[in-house]
Design goal:
The chain has about 325 residues and is mostly helical. Helices cover about 75% and strands about 0% of the residues. The chain is built from 20 helices and no strands. The protein starts with a helix and ends with a helix.
């Protein structure tokens, strides 16, 4: 009886862990759909720790990391596709993620499987990205225009085509790009989010509409740190007098974020010579935990002209820089003091 109870107890615990992992995965996906990336990420990681082989857990975690722009998504999609419960939709998301992360060989392999199943549009997406990598913009445009209207790759093809047209810069091309962006930007999904961000980033939006588009980007339910900074950049360009309010919004948005996320905001602030706010956002105890953040803090100190503080930071205990880079900063500091 002891053995029986032990076995029943073991399987009972495993079933409980599976249920909890699936609930966390569902919760992670819901948080991601609302743009709450920190909460989504925490739940996805916890679900994976509990049940790393559950299809529902892998699917939700892959999508969360994909939305967050984290390359971990590729490994999770790969594990998911190795399971019998994987779907064609999982493979399509895998292809799109592989393209975004520049893994075109991987994207081509999975796109070929989709082509064999009857949808060649994803192969054309891969072809277009390979053409762009070779500097062949006309070839990429031809591949994108050739994606069939019924293909699920059509929206992504339109998004990339609009970006190419906007970059061409002619009046006709920019007008066509804006028309495509307008059609895609009304979608509440990731395609709509990317259309808003790309339209603003490429300058395809007319100046008198830029502020309204930026607000739509801020209000999008799938907005993330990158799109937030795109919107704030446009707000600043549209109304330079609002600089203090925009900078305050950026600092407040990232105030409680992890150091890796703060680093993106610090770079944005440094580029706009808001060095004091960058230093406020990245205090030394946090910056020393991340090499990129530490370099950004040194850049902010240098930008503020506080070379004595740069020298002190470089000689104050352990720092996350290799010798060559640290020596470069020390030499620059010595010349300026």
């Amino acid at each position: 009886w002891v053995v029986v109870f032990w076995v029943l107890g073991y399987y009972g615990v495993q079933k409980w862990r599976s249920r909890q992992a699936r609930r966390l995965a569902i919760s992670a996906a819901e948080y991601a759909s609302q743009g709450h990336w920190r909460e989504a990420g925490l739940r996805a990681v916890t679900a994976l720790e509990m049940r790393p082989d559950e299809p529902q857990v892998l699917r939700a975690a892959a999508r969360v990391f994909d939305f967050m722009g984290d390359p971990q998504a590729l490994g999770l999609y790969g594990k998911l596709l190795a399971l019998p419960d994987a779907s064609a939709e999982d493979r399509k998301r895998y292809v799109q993620a592989a393209i975004r992360f520049g893994q075109l060989g991987l994207a081509r392999r999975e796109a070929a499987a989709l082509e064999a199943a009857g949808d060649p549009g994803f192969v054309r997406l891969v072809n277009a990205n390979e053409s762009l990598a070779r500097g062949d913009a006309p070839g990429a445009e031809a591949e994108l225009r050739a994606v069939e209207p019924g293909s699920e790759a059509r929206a992504q093809a339109d998004l990339r085509l609009a970006g190419l047209l906007a970059a061409r810069g002619t009046a006709g091309a920019r007008a066509e790009a804006l028309g495509i962006f307008r059609a895609l930007a009304v979608q509440p999904d990731n395609t709509g989010l990317e259309a808003l961000a790309m339209a603003l980033s490429t300058g395809a939006v007319p100046p008198d509409e830029a502020a309204a588009w930026a607000q739509r980007l801020l209000d999008h339910p799938l907005g993330n740190d990158r799109t937030f900074l795109v919107a704030q950049t446009v707000r600043l360009q549209a109304d330079p007098a609002a600089r203090d309010a925009v900078v305050e919004a950026v600092v407040a948005h990232f105030a409680d974020a992890r150091v890796e996320r703060k680093a993106a905001a610090a770079l944005w602030l440094n580029e706009r010579k808001e060095f004091a706010r960058s230093l406020e956002l990245l205090p030394r105890p946090e910056a020393v935990a991340d090499r990129g953040a530490f370099v950004l803090r040194l850049d902010a100190l240098a930008g503020a002209g506080d070379w004595a503080a740069v020298a002190e930071a470089l000689n104050d205990g352990a720092i996350p820089l290799d010798g060559a880079l640290a020596d470069l900063f020390r030499a620059r500091s010595a010349r300026m003091t």
